[in-house]
Every structure is written in structure tokens, then in C-alpha cells.
Specification:
There is one protein chain. The chain has about 210 residues and is of the alpha/beta class. It has one domain (about 5-210): TIM Barrel (Alpha-Beta Barrel). Helix content is about 45%, strand content about 15%. The protein contains ten helices and nine strands. It has helices spanning about 5-15, 30-40, 55-60, 80-85, 100-110, 120-125, 145-150, 170-175, 190-195, 200-210; strands at about 20-25, 45-50, 70-75, 90-95, 110-115, 115, 130-135, 160, 180-185. The strands form two sheets. A six-stranded parallel β-sheet has the order 5-4-3-2-1-9, sandwiched between helices. Helix 4 links the parallel strand 3 and strand 4. The longest helix is centred in the N-terminal third of the chain and has 12 residues, at about 5-15. Keywords: Carbohydrate metabolism, Lyase, Schiff base. Pfam families: Aldolase. Its EC number is 4.1.2.14, 4.1.3.16.
Amino acid sequence: MTPQDASKRAREICGLAPIVPVLVVNDVTHARPLAEALVAGGLPALEVTLRTPAALDVIAEMAQVSGGVVGAGTLVTPQDVKNAKAAGATFGVSPGATDALIDACEAEELPLLAGAATATEAMRLLERGYDMLKFFPAEASGGAPALKAIGAPLPQISFCPTGGVSPQNAASYLSLPNVLCAGGSWVAPSAMVTAGDWAGIEALAKEARLLGA
């Protein structure tokens, strides 16, 4: 997969909804109903972070949910990429980017939303052919004002800000011309997931869907 094809597919995925749920799932039995609730609420692109022992099994379960597009977050090593692809992930998300990680994603034909926090990092990824990136950690890196400033000299790059994005500040990011969507964890609070409150999570997803209106 070429960087151009990867970025095109990443753009398509980011264009599905204004918010991409960032999910930390500990129990695989929660995977399918959680994905179904989020998709029903209008958030089909799901990022399952590789932060729990169950993550790969969760990806495999969610990949079977109709209407969902499941990706793996927290890709750090080439082995992460291979594991995620084998589990059924159709895109990857990384906190940063290394040549080894990018090479692995291209070899596995896994579209990558690579992380960048500075103009230099963004330019390096653009140099490799990637123009759809993750801005991370968004709030700690200056928030919407910083991303707006980066966009002025680099208008050809689009971003999905993640890290500290909330219902209170999401609109400030989504209003920027260089932002296609934002990543957020608030649509699937751990307490609601543990309690199996799928109706509540679907309601949160529906509210998040309206943020891009």
C-alpha cells in the first residue's frame, strides 16, 4: 500500500463521523455490544487501543459487527502492526511515527493514522507521502490554537486531534479547516462499559455525532 493510498483510506475513515471513539476494553465479552451501540449511535469508526491483554480479541470481535470499521490504536512496533492486521483491524493509529512502523504498515497494507505533535513531525510524514495525520497529544500540545497555527503553513495536511478532546472543546477542533474528525474516549466511559449500559453509550454516541453538524 502506497502512502497516498493509505492517506486516502484514512481520510475516508475519518470522514465517516466527527468523533472516533478511542476504546480501552478489558473484557472481550463487552466488545460486540459496545461496538453495536457505538455504530447504532452513528460512530462507525472505532479505535481499539492495544493497552489491555484483551485488545486483539476485542478487535476480532468488533470486526464482525455490521457497519463498523475497526482499527487498532497505540501501534508502536512492527509486531503490533502484524498482530493488529491478523486480528482484523482495517486501519491503524499510532501516537507517533517511526520509519520501521510506517514500513510495517505499508508491508501489511494497513492504512496508518500516524501521530504528529509539531510542524517538523508533520512535515516529515508529508515528505513520506502522508497527509492525513493524528495530532497527539492534542490538548497538551497547545490544543486547537496550536493546530490552527500548524495548518496555516501546511494547509495540505489534515488531522484527527486526540488526547484531551472532550464534549466541551471538540467543537473548537472540528471548526478548523484542517480537522476532519477528533478522537475521544468520553463516548464509552469505563463505568458504563462495565455496567453494560449500551443504551447509555448509544445516546452518548448520538450526541457526539451532532458535534460535527
